[in-house]
Amino acid sequence: MSTLENKTVVVIGGSSGIGFAVALASLQSFASPVIIASSSEERVKKAVERLKAHNLPGVIRGEVVDATNSASIKDLIGRLGEVDHIVWTSGNKVNAHFPDFEPEMGRAAFDVRFWGPFTVAQTAKIRPGGSLVLTMGPSLIRPQPTMSVWASVTGALDGLIRGLAVDLAPIRVNAVSPGGVDTEFFDDLPSNTKDVLLKNYSDKLLIKRFGQPEEIAMAYIFLMKCGYITGQRIDVDGGIALA
Ligand SMILES: NC(=O)c1ccc[n+]([C@@H]2O[C@H](COP(=O)([O-])OP(=O)(O)OC[C@H]3O[C@@H](n4cnc5c(N)ncnc54)[C@H](OP(=O)(O)O)[C@@H]3O)[C@@H](O)[C@H]2O)c1
Predict the structure, then answer these.
(1) Across the 243 residues of the chain, what is the mean pLDDT of every consecutive 10-residue run?
(2) What CDD domains does the annotation carry (predicted)?
């Protein structure tokens, strides 16, 4: 049976939200070492402490990487050496609501979510049997008003996973496409704005609520463990396409 036992799992974006849940679920699946990386040294340190507090078997480590900078990503890949699975959940907060933003803002969304994992794919040393799992979003199949940039980023990622599945074969490349997930991503919003956003979005779903990070993490674990799936996307989005 396919397992993550003693597999090296790297989660770039693992200091919070979905990435943190993937790191925890990997430890619960006996992966070791589990390495989380993101841009803030302090957030990485705190996340490593939170993971260790679960007292699970497995080595946990933190790394700092600035996903807007390809040299920083290449440095990280060099420090990691050979690994089994890399999960990319890093995502910066970008205010790019159509039409009122400068092109640089839109490019910033691509820098972290598209060019970041692209650089990883060019440089990572993934062992046979391993995989790369990227992160998309529901704008590909159901763009909300003003979200053209996000529809474009996710569309580019949809192409990227299939292109990389061919270029990196037999290393597998897949993606998870989460819907609305209650994470630290929304923490900067005033609490009443966040509540309204969650309520309005939830009303549009078949499953009338936001997802929890642990629910989304299960799809990443499946994509790492199943050795016969590549070039695919799993939508874990509360049924937004059918609502
Ligand atoms: N939550 C949702 O509803 C939802 C829905 C669909 C898609 N997504 C996508 O899923 C991904 C994860 O979202 P989330 O909700 O888990 O968000 P989150 O809790 O804010 O996590 C984002 C992660 O990205 C890291 N990050 C941000 N900028 C970075 C940079 N320049 N370099 C390296 N790491 C960076 C953050 O750590 P540092 O701050 O330490 O860098 C953090 O670990 C994002 O791409 C998001 O757009 C989220």
Answers:
(1) 91 98 98 98 98 98 98 98 98 92 92 98 98 97 94 98 98 97 92 89 95 98 98 97 91
(2) SDR_c
Ligand 1 proximity of 85 Cβ (cutoff 6 Å): no
Nearest CA to ligand 1 atom 30: 67
Summarize pLDDT for 166-222 with one digit per residue, the tens.
999 999 999 999 999 999 999 988 888 889 988 999 999 999 999 999 999 999 999
Quick check: CB of 178 below 6 Å from ligand 1?
yes
- Residue 106 neighbours by CB under 8 Å, 6+ apart: 94, 96, 149, 152
CB atoms within 10 A of CB 81: 9
Q: Which atom of ligand 1 is nearest to the CA of 185?
A: 20
Interatomic CA distance for residues 152 and 157, integer angstroms = 9
Q: Which two tokens stand for residue 19?
A: 């990435």
With a 6 Å cutoff on the Cβ, whether 15 touches ligand 1 is: yes
Using most ligand atoms within 8 A of CB, pick from 74, 92, 134, 139 the residue to mutate for ligand 1. 92
What tokens does 31 get? 């992966």
